[in-house]
């Protein structure tokens, strides 16, 4: 089967010829449909750059990124926006909710910019709210919600368009551990029940331990990767910690 | 030196943010210069002594208005600079955490204000000088003078005045900034932008209620100034509709912002289409916080529209009036048969005048060494009789009602009566309608609408006039249009035409003589005019007579001068008001742009494309600009109607062109600000995700 996301030898350089920084250096991996992948790395390892490239916010210097078989490095202008709108779902560390809109309206916005009919919008929001357990906050404004609720609303917005790929950038970064756990369990649920493909970037081993597969990045290259397989989450977590210790340095500090 | 560099860099860096501020300053300076430089342009004009006097008066008034204008501009500039300060709270916060003293920050601000002030003054004056070259054409056109040749004018005095006035304003801004900086707290500076906005949904029932109250109040205010116009007999009565209007404007904005949101959120199909929900929330959240300034802007726009259109129409209709209301070259009039008691203790009459008032107008003219035969032709003489009746008498039974309505009007002035034959002779020359009368009939001629309306009511009631036990009844149910005294406005409050025999033995109140000059061509006309205006006025006998003259040329000049004065002051005030309101709106919109920027970045991140974003932005700003304008326009319909009636002496047939002119100004200035705001905002959100 064709992978949902295929990253093919991408490179990303910053700076001028005299002082070149390789943020991503010949990186390749792929994500199959229904996978839940965590990308781990210390700050400066290139994980944010990678996410930016996949989400088409940034452009690669060389190489190709295929999402559902489509080479997104070749997309331009309005088709880029269309791609971002229709094929991707985003979850951000800072929630990225509009403070002027209610939770319901925030979620609806993702559909209304795709010109989905009102009736369908309502039905889909109800369903997503069910999945993410946010039915009781739908009519609240972001400032009336807790961080965990906000992130679940943001998650609902990300999955409601049935994207090929959900990109989560440090989704638990602004949450306390209880909310983080709840959110990640929801991610698992989405992954299992709706077969949502999730690619999550994090530096937190606990967060990563909820994924099915972890890819470690160091200096713009894949350092290590392994799957959870039949391990319990605890075992998986210990394995991740081992790699993190191996990686050393910054990532360790971040724990 | 560091501070100096820092402030220069700041200006360069934030030039985009300053665009509107800078633009407003330049406009303000330019307009201030242009209107204060008018005198340097009028010097070149070939006009008479009287016009020169009028111009002097106009320039004095303009400089008086300038003081007022400078207050408005001063407030505007302080307001604008406060906005800009707020935007930079974080920057100042960083300076403070780095250990910079508040005094130094004040210095940075001082330098910035200084540079911006200097730059805006230079550019503004350049623009002003350029505009004032075109202005000279307008000035010449206004005073109906030939602009002999086009010369480049520069007014030193206006330039210096502009420098001084704006210098003071900038100084105030500096002081204000310093106070602001010294008062601010670091915590607020650093976290000022993180305020969480409370988006309160208003109670729909309460909103509807308030909306109805507001609409009702507004309706009543509209009613008062139009249909209820007659009831406004007292100058202070006008405050009620003004207060009602102001209050209801505020209420309407308050309730509408809530109502519209509730309404549109229920129109699900519309609400959940593209970015509609976002745009609507943007607008409503802003209206929530800016209802007050919206109301002020709406009212300012309203004043602008009324001032501009009224001022322009006054000038137009005054010129149009002259053609019909001043048919003859000259008109003399003289009070007759003065009584001792009138002269005694009077500042108006001299005892010597009694003797003169007993001789005819022709005789007085000969005493003044004015030769009627060589100078005048088409002579028509006419006497106005006084039969001891006052307005109170001629209104008859209707008086009681009128008095209740207008208790402050004077009812005891003597009414004028004229013989039919006298009138018809005059009417022939004046181009007025001629009449016939039965032995017991009378006609009232009046062209001052407000009084004519009152008189018409009395005429309908067939109020008789009694002279020596003879009764006379109105021939028509309405006042006839016409006048006795040449004037630039419709100000004839009414005189009576009676059959000749009724007035044969009555006392003459005023004698008058109208005539044309016996002259071929303009030059000779001017000579006779000069003879009348200067020689007769300076003749020693002129102190002993109540004779007065009005000439066509003089009336034209006065009217033109007045028209020009009103137009210039109207333009001046109107444009300044327009700029102020547009600038406040623009600044407000831009100052929210930091919040907006975050929101637009949010949208971009979830994949909204630029076209959709720009559309949303355009709609948002457009509605924000349109909302106060729309209400102001509705206000103005009634405001202009009211002004029109208030100024009905000037005639009102020429309203459309002035409204078109006003609309042009608004589209140009207000629309210009709108576009500028849109492009500035667009630039801001275009920045990286």
Task: Write the topology of this structure.
The complex is a heterodimer of chains A (255) and B (689).
Chain A: E1 5-14, E2 21-31, E3 36-41, H1 47-54, E4 62-67, E5 70-71, H2 77-87, E6 88-91, H3 103-112, H4 118-132, H5 147-159, E7 165-169, H6 177-193, E8 198-202, H7 205-208, E9 213-218, E10 221-227, H8 233-247, H9 250-254
Parallel strand pairs in A: 3-8, 3-9, 6-7, 7-8
Antiparallel strand pairs in A: 1-2, 1-4, 4-5, 9-10
Helix pairs in contact in A: 3-4, 3-5, 4-5, 5-6
Chain B: H1 2-13, H2 15-36, H3 38-42, H4 49-87, H5 89-97, H6 102-142, H7 156-183, H8 186-191, H9 204-225, H10 239-266, H11 268-271, H12 276-325, E1 330-335, H13 340-343, H14 352-357, H15 361-367, H16 372-375, E2 376-386, H17 391-395, H18 399-405, E3 417-419, H19 420-430, E4 441-445, H20 449-460, E5 465-467, E6 470-474, E7 495-498, H21 500-503, E8 507-517, H22 521-538, E9 548-551, H23 552-591, H24 593-605, H25 610-646, H26 655-686
Parallel strand pairs in B: 3-7, 4-6
Antiparallel strand pairs in B: 1-8, 1-9, 2-8, 4-7, 5-6
Helix pairs in contact in B: 1-6, 2-4, 2-6, 2-7, 2-23, 2-26, 4-7, 4-23, 6-7, 9-10, 10-12, 12-23, 12-25, 12-26, 23-26, 25-26
Percentage of residues assigned to helices of chain A: 25-40%
Rounded to the nearest angstrom, the radius of gyration of chain B is 32 Å
How would you sum up the major sheet of chain B?
5 strands, mixed
- The chain-level mean pLDDT of chain B equals 83
Task: Describe this entry's structure for a reader.
- The complex is a heterodimer of chains A (255) and B (689).
- Chain A is of the alpha/beta class.
- Chain A has one domain: P-loop containing nucleotide triphosphate hydrolases (Rossmann fold, 3-Layer(aba) Sandwich).
- Chain A contains nine helices and ten strands.
- Chain A has helices at residues 47-54, 77-87, 103-112, 118-132, 147-159, 177-193, 205-208, 233-247, 250-254; strands at residues 5-14, 21-31, 36-41, 62-67, 70-71, 88-91, 165-169, 198-202, 213-218, 221-227.
- A six-stranded mixed β-sheet of chain A has the order 6-7-8-3-9-10, sandwiched between helices. A four-stranded antiparallel β-sheet of chain A has the order 2-1-4-5, with helices on one face.
- In chain A, a hairpin with a 2-residue loop joins strand 9 and strand 10.
- The mean pLDDT of chain A is 86.
- Chain B is α+β, with helices and mostly antiparallel strands and 689 residues long.
- Among the domains of chain B are: 1-195, no CATH class; 328-555, no CATH class.
- Chain B has a five-stranded mixed β-sheet with strand order 3-7-4-6-5.
- In chain B, a hairpin with a 2-residue loop joins strand 5 (465-467) and strand 6.
- In chain B, helix 1 packs across helix 6 (102-142), helix 2 runs antiparallel to helix 26 and helix 12 packs antiparallel against helix 26 (655-686).
- The two termini of chain B are 36 Å apart.
- The mean pLDDT of chain B is 83.
- The chains are: A alpha/beta (255), B alpha+beta (689).
- Chain A binds chain B through residues 57, 78, 81-86, 88, 90, 92, 96-101, 105, 108-113, 115, 118, 121, 141, 143, 157, and chain B through 196-199, 268-269, 272-278, 281-282, 285, 599, 602-603, 605-612, 689.
């Amino acid at each position: 089967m064709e992978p949902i996301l295929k990253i093919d030898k991408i490179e990303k350089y910053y700076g001028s010829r005299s002082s070149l920084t390789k943020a991503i250096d010949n990186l390749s991996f792929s994500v199959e449909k229904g996978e839940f992948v965590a990308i781990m790395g210390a700050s400066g390892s290139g994980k944010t750059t990678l996410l930016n490239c996949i989400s088409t916010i940034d452009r690669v210097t060389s190489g190709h990124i295929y999402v559902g078989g489509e080479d997104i490095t070749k997309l331009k202008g309005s088709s880029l926006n269309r791609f971002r709108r229709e094929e991707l779902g985003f979850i951000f560390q800072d929630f990225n909710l509009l403070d002027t809109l209610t939770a319901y309206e925030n979620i609806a916005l993702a559909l209304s910019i795709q010109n989905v009919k009102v009736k369908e919008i309502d039905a889909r929001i109800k369903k997503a709210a069910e999945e993410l357990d946010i039915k009781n906050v739908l009519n609240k404004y972001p400032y009336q919600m807790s961080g965990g609720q906000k992130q679940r609303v943001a998650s609902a917005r990300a999955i409601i368009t049935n994207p090929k790929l959900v990109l989560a950038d440090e989704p638990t970064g602004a949450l306390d551990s209880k909310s983080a756990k709840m959110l990640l369990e929801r991610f698992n649920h989405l992954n299992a029940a709706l077969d949502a493909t999730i690619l999550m970037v994090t530096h937190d081993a606990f967060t990563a331990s909820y994924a099915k597969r972890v890819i470690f990045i160091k200096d713009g290259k894949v350092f290590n990767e392994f799957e959870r397989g039949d391990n319990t989450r605890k075992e998986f977590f210990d394995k991740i910690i081992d790699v993190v210790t191996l990686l050393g340095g910054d990532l360790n500090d971040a724990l | 030196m560091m501070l100096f560099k820092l402030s220069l860099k700041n200006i360069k860096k934030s030039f985009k943010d300053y665009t509107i501020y800078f633009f407003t300053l330049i406009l303000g300076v330019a307009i201030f210069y242009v209107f204060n430089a008018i005198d340097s342009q009028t010097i070149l004009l070939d006009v008479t002594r009287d016009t020169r006097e009028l111009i002097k008066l106009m320039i004095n008034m303009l400089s008086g208005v300038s003081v007022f204008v400078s207050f408005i501009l001063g407030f505007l500039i302080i307001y604008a600079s406060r906005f800009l300060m707020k935007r930079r709270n974080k920057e100042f916060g960083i300076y403070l955490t780095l250990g910079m003293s508040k005094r130094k920050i004040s210095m940075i601000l001082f330098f910035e204000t200084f540079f911006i002030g200097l730059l805006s003054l230079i550019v503004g004056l350049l623009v002003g000088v350029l505009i004032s070259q075109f202005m000279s054409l307008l000035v010449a056109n206004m005073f109906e003078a030939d602009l002999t040749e086009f010369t480049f004018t520069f007014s030193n005095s206006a330039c210096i005045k502009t420098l001084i006035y704006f210098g003071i304003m900038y100084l105030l801004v500096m002081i204000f900034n310093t106070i602001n900086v010294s008062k601010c707290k670091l915590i607020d500076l650093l976290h000022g932008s993180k305020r969480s906005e409370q988006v309160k949904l208003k109670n729909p029932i309460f909103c509807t209620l308030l909306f109805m109250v507001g609409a009702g109040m507004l309706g009543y205010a509209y009613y008062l100034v139009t249909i209820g116009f007659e009831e406004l007999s007292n100058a202070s009565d006008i405050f009620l509709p003004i207060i009602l209007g102001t209050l209801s404007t505020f209420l309407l904005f308050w309730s509408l912002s809530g109502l519209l949101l509730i309404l549109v959120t229920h129109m699900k199909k519309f609400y959940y289409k593209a970015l509609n929900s976002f745009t609507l929330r943007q607008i409503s959240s802003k209206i929530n916080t800016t209802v007050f300034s919206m109301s002020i802007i709406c009212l300012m726009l309203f004043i602008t529209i009324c001032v501009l259109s009224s001022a322009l129409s006054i000038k137009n209709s005054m010129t149009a009036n002259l053609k019909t209301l001043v048919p003859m070259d000259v008109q003399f009039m003289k009070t007759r048969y003065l009584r001792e008691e009138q002269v005694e203790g009077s500042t108006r009459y001299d005892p010597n005048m009694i003797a003169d008032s007993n001789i005819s107008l022709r005789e007085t003219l000969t005493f003044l060494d004015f030769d009627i035969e060589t100078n005048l032709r088409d002579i028509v003489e006419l006497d106005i009789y006084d039969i001891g009746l006052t307005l109170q008498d001629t209104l008859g039974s209707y008086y009681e009602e009128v008095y209740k309505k207008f208790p402050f009007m004077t009812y005891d002035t003597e009414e004028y009566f004229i013989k039919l034959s006298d009138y018809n002779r005059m009417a022939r020359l004046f181009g007025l309608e001629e009449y016939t009368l039965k032995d017991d009939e009378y006609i009232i001629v009046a062209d001052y609408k407000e009084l004519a309306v009152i008189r018409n009511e009395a005429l309908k009631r067939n109020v008789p006039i009694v002279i020596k036990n003879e009764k006379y009844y109105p021939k028509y149910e309405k006042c006839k249009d016409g006048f006795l005294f040449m004037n630039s406005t419709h100000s004839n409050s009414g005189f009576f035409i009676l059959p000749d025999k009724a007035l044969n033995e009555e006392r003459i109140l005023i004698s008058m003589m109208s005539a044309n000059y016996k002259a071929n061509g303009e030059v000779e006309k001017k000579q006779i005019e000069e003879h009348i205006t200067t020689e007769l006025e300076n003749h020693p006998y002129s102190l002993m007579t109540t004779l007065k003259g009005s000439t066509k040329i003089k009336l034209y000049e006065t009217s033109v001068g007045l028209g020009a004065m009103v137009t210039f002051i109207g333009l001046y005030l109107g444009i300044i008001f327009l700029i102020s309101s547009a600038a406040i709106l623009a600044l407000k919109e831009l100052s929210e742009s930091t919040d907006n920027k975050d929101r637009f970045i949010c949208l971009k991140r979830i994949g909204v494309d630029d076209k959709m974003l720009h559309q949303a932005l355009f709609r948002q700003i457009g509605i924000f600009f349109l909302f106060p304008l729309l209400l102001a326009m509705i206000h103005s319909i009634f405001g202009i109607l009211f002004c029109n009636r208030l100024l009905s002496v000037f005639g009102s047939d020429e309203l459309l062109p002035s409204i078109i002119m006003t609309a042009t100004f608004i589209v140009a200035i207000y629309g210009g600000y709108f576009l500028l705001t849109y492009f500035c905002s667009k630039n801001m959100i275009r920045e990286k995700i």
